[in-house]
Design goal:
Blueprint: E1 20-24, E2 27-31, H1 39-45, H2 50-61, H3 64-71, H4 75-89
Antiparallel strand pairs: 1-2
Length: about 100
């Protein structure tokens, strides 16, 4: 006799609602969570490729001062910021 199987549950991804905060040269960078974007932002970037969507999202959400701080960042530090934003949002790049 076998025991009954446990019901299959499908886990839904965790949505992080909190904005992402990061300091760049003393300037506060505030970005929305990538897993909890407002519908209007999603609508504006829905047809764009990944890179265009990311830069459009930055331009739509950051102040001119914050954008200028990002523009002047060291490329390695910029990639660290993007990785921290992704990790904060609970977004996984998956396996290649």
């Amino acid at each position: 006799m076998t025991s009954p199987k446990a019901p299959i549950t499908i886990s839904t991804p965790t949505k992080v609602k909190d904005d992402f905060s990061y300091k760049v040269n003393g300037i506060e960078i505030e970005l929305p969570s990538l897993s909890y974007l407002k519908p209007g932002l999603v609508r504006r970037i829905r047809r764009l490729g990944d890179v265009d969507a990311m830069y459009t999202l930055l331009e739509l959400t950051l102040t001119p001062e914050a954008l200028a701080a990002l523009d002047d960042m060291d490329p390695d530090a910029y990639h660290e910021l993007l990785e921290a934003w992704r990790a904060h949002s609970g977004i996984s790049l998956g396996e290649s």
